[in-house]
Write a structure and sequence with these properties.
One of its GO terms (molecular function) is tRNA 2'-phosphotransferase activity. This protein is of the alpha+beta class and 182 residues long. The protein contains six helices and nine strands; from the N terminus they run H-E-H-H-E-E-E-H-E-H-E-H-E-E-E.
Length: 182
């Protein structure tokens, strides 16, 4: 499977397992799972064909481990805009987590903190390098430090997804350190 096909199938899966399952007639269960055979058949019926082998390749080679397979079911690991309960236990975060963004978003973030936007949670990274890669998807990255230990002490709840993404409902700006702010 070439890289272009891998990316195409991955984007298709992300769109329909995170955001628009109904567009191809899928119904995710409460945990976000769907039978793989049902997914492949629905995609095919809507003009996008891929094989189980291609799906397995995408799941196995995705560097961000965006998808999880359990037996005959698949789901997106996080990032949903549709209502699902991933069943992730609460977790104690490391002292600092990181968020990648771009300069044009900084004024809004200073004013409002980090909000989940069209997702259920704010996504945070355990290291600066991952946060920089995330931010680079929208331009030149700016990495913000999040005082996760202080947030946790103050009662904010954290979860960590199977692929290592830290999730929390929001990050008020008082817990953020901006580049150049010390």
């Amino acid at each position: 499977m070439d890289e272009r096909r891998t990316v195409k199938v991955s984007k298709y899966l992300a769109k329909h397992l995170r955001h628009q399952p109904e567009r191809i007639g899928l119904t995710l269960d409460e945990g976000g799972w769907v039978e793989i055979g049902t997914l492949i058949a629905a995609a095919s019926a809507h003009g996008f064909r891929f094989t189980r082998e291609e799906l397995d390749h995408v799941v196995a080679t995705n560097d961000k481990r965006r998808f999880a397979v359990e037996g005959t079911r698949i789901r997106a690991s996080q990032g949903h805009s549709v209502e699902v309960d991933l069943g992730l236990p609460t977790a104690t975060p490391p002292p600092y987590l990181y968020h990648g963004t771009v300069a044009r978003s900084l004024d809004a973030i200073r004013a409002e903190g980090l909000r989940p936007m069209n997702r259920h949670d704010v996504h945070l990274s355990a290291d600066r390098e991952t946060a920089a890669r995330v931010g680079a998807r929208r331009g030149r990255p700016v990495v913000l430090s999040v005082d996760a230990a202080a947030m946790h002490r103050d009662g904010h709840v954290f979860h960590v997804s199977a692929n290592g993404v830290w999730l929390t409902r929001a990050v008020p700006s008082r817990y953020l350190r901006f580049p150049g702010s010390g």
